[in-house]
């Protein structure tokens, strides 16, 4: 399978490293970056218009919200399926619809990886029947919320117990707390949508890592998914599971067995 990565930061480079280490049946034919002067042993491009010449089967974005629309449109138009890791882009009205329109016309797919979450396959399956509620709680150490609106909503340095400083829709959470927008939108797209999915953001002075708890109820029954994620060694702001989920997706597309 001919693969192009968009972005060569902590996530993109780790995905490439893992694919090589696992001898995945993938040919990395190009990487999209801002600076094409450096040498990483793979052809570099900086313009979506150059994508078609690489003849990719799959394009995986891991470069940030602004990269989703231009590279997504170019990928789908070039006959490649497109993976959007920066799902926060879909909080913008019309973005997902525009990509899906091009995907339909070219008989391609837009793929949403689970990122730092787990159980998204179960949630998406459960949503085939009516869902009554989906609640996603994100718990982080109190200092991890510094530099966000949380500083105005509570005394992060003075907390002695868990404190929920935001309880609202996934769409509002994505707008007010963009660093959590990716996971908020993934849960929303899998289940009830951004306006019916409830997000609770919690600061915990005793937490040592990031915890996600997704609870859903509906005609299927009830589920509760809890993950305690460790950070990526090369970038403590990113979850290791984010890179691993992309590797799994790519291997599922390239290999004979899909799990």
Report on this structure.
With 259 residues, the chain is of the alpha/beta class. It folds into two domains: 2-115 and 241-254, NAD(P)-binding Rossmann-like Domain (Rossmann fold, 3-Layer(aba) Sandwich); 120-234, Dihydrodipicolinate Reductase, domain 2. The protein contains eight helices and 13 strands. The protein has helices spanning 10-21, 65-77, 95-106, 120-126, 150-153, 170-176, 181-190, 240-254, and strands spanning 2-6, 27-32, 44-45, 58-61, 81-84, 110-111, 131-141, 163-169, 198-204, 210-218, 221-229, 231-232, 235-239. The strands form three sheets. The protein has a six-stranded parallel sheet. A five-stranded mixed sheet has the order 8-9-7-10-11. Helix 6 (170-176) packs antiparallel against helix 7 (181-190). The longest helix is centred in the C-terminal third of the chain and has 15 residues, at 240-254. The protein is globular, with a radius of gyration of 19 Å. The mean pLDDT is 94.
Main attributes of the structure:
single chain, 259 residues, alpha/beta, Rossmann fold, Dihydrodipicolinate Reductase, domain 2, 2 domains, six-stranded parallel β-sheet, five-stranded mixed β-sheet, 31% helix, globular, L-Asp_DH, Asp_DH, NADP, NAD
